[in-house]
Amino acid sequence: MAVDIPGLVAVIVFYVLILITGLWAARKSKKEEKRCTGNKSEITMVGGRNLNVWVSSFTTTATWVGGGFILGTAEVVYLPSQGLVWLVALIGFSLSLIVGGLFFCKPMRGNNYVTMMDPFQIKYGNTLTSILFIPALLADVFWVACVLAALGGTMSVILDISSFYSVIISAGVAILYTLLGGLYSVAYTDVIQLALMFFGLWLCIPFTLMSPASADITYTAVNTLYQTPWLGNIELRDVGRWLDDLLLVTLGGICYQAFYQRILAAATITQAQVTCYISSIICFTLGIPPAIIGAVAASTDWNQTSYGLPTPFEKGEAGMILPIALQQLCPSYISIAGIGAIAAAVMSSIDSALLSSASMFARNIYKKILRKKASESEVLMVVKLSVLLCGSTGMGLAMTTSSVYMFFMLSGDMMYTVMCSQLLCILFIPKSNAYGASVGFVVGLLLRCLAGEPVLRIPPVIHFPGCRLVNGVYVQFFPFRTVSMLISLLSIVVISYLTSFLFDRGLLREEWDVFNVKENNSVTLKDVALKELTEESTLNSPVTSKEDVHILE
């Protein structure tokens, strides 16, 4: 098969368009930096806190709807062993944004934080913050690898070009405009990318549905034709695993810095909440086209296409079912639009993850710990170097495997089982302290590791109820991730209250209090946030709105 020249040209045009948009946004960022009288690094990290609702909504949606989401949605619906009822990502991602808007926007945006790690650093100190930063960093790097692997596999299927080149070029473009413009470049390129996603995916739907090789999907939803019905079913033994996956996606999603970078960039708390609700609706809408394509693929007689038999599932290519379906069931000029949609989804997720991890490292590790007297220009340089390093690492990982799901699982699992309980306690449990957080971190990580992982062929040490062999690999059917998270949460609360009681009552000597629990119990996150805001003289700068000052005071 020869390289698809028209398709390649279309992809190049798309990349040039994105790059031009990123460069334009970078100029806007420079103008904001010149006008800013406060911290210029915050222009890069949170865009001056002046993004309007629609730009915020589009960039938030584009962050959620990545290549892993689009390809994974089609794959789940197509797989004979799963089907539509197992499509927890479509529901979970939308619920995640709603939960974030209802409960997490106000405490985070109200205290004028810049990154997700700020409240941890304020209350727990630098040492523990450095440890908690590691899973957040790894989750972002794995996410970059996940979406790049998705794009590489897609382009190799439709355009017949090496995934090696598509990964390098895509990562290079995303790194370049993120380096130049920070959140402004990320946000405004996301608007273009989201429009391309919406147009490209929906354009392909009529052609796949009308393909002569495909049967009526309303019939194959509940009847066996070429494979089992794509609607799928959930047996009683699978209920725990289904709930576990749903909660992982819903609660794990609000543990990413990429989410908070968007709501912290909104002008007010209300705008941040509205952003979440609008994004939830758009996210659900964008999940429908790949789900339909997955259903069409499950209703296709592959022997009537040039793909032939055995089927993609039998060949072990279910993970690439969306690009395969576009290639086989649509005219070539239509499948190119699908490629543009996937490429847009990939790049919109890459730039978000890169800027998220770079912002946390530059502010919470470099500025607050390593170089407390670092100038703003120095912090900005660290942000750029971090973007380059994280992007290169994710790019390297994407070339080591074609398993998109593996990186998706590593990223989501890490944030849900390790970070979710930490975030809940720091925001909603006033008595939580560094002792409880330390124990909770170890407990959550240990339980998750001992539960094993069938995708990585890691056998479990702990066999939860219902654990059994499936195709030679032990699979946990119990909601073990949620149990691990809840035990970690309980550990944080119990140890925090116990140590606070012991130090407050003098049952433990004050000099043993290495985390200063007694002192921190009398200081709220709001007090420290207001103090830092005043010290940095940002109350009169563009990065702080009147609503922020009112809430802090």
SSE order in H/E notation?
Answer: HHHHHHHHHHHHHHHHHEEHHHH
The mean pLDDT is: 83
Q: Give the biggest beta sheet.
A: 2 strands, antiparallel
Distance between the termini: 66 Å
Q: Which structural class should the secondary elements be placed in? A: mainly alpha
Across the major sheet, the strand order is: 1-2
- Total E-strand runs: 2
Provide the β-strand percentage band. Answer: under 5%
- How many DSSP helices? 21
Global outline: globular
Unreliable residue stretches: 537-553
Rg over CA atoms: 24 Å
The percentage helix is 55-70%
Structure report:
The chain is mainly alpha-helical and about 550 residues long. It has a domain at about 5-115 and about 150-400. It has helices at about 5-35, 40-45, 55-65, 65-80, 90-110, 120-125, 125-160, 165-210, 215-220, 240-250, 255-265, 270-300, 320-330, 330-370, 375-400, 405-430, 435-450, 480-505, 515-520, 525-535, 545-550, and strands at about 470, 475.
Features:
single chain, 553 residues, mainly alpha, two-stranded antiparallel sheet, 21 helices, globular
Question: Can you describe this structure in just a few lines?
Answer:
With 553 residues, the protein is mainly α. The chain has a domain at 5-117 and 152-399.
Secondary structure elements and their pairing?
Layout: H1 5-35, H2 41-46, H3 53-64, H4 67-78, H5 88-110, H6 118-124, H7 126-158, H8 163-209, H9 217-220, H10 239-252, H11 257-264, H12 269-298, H13 321-329, H14 332-370, H15 376-398, H16 404-428, H17 434-450, E1 468-470, E2 473-475, H18 480-504, H19 517-520, H20 525-535, H21 546-552
Antiparallel strand pairs: 1-2
Helix pairs in contact: 1-8, 1-14, 3-8, 3-11, 3-12, 3-14, 4-12, 4-14, 5-10, 5-12, 6-7, 7-8, 7-13, 7-14, 7-15, 7-16, 8-12, 8-14, 8-15, 10-16, 12-13, 14-15, 16-17, 16-18, 17-18
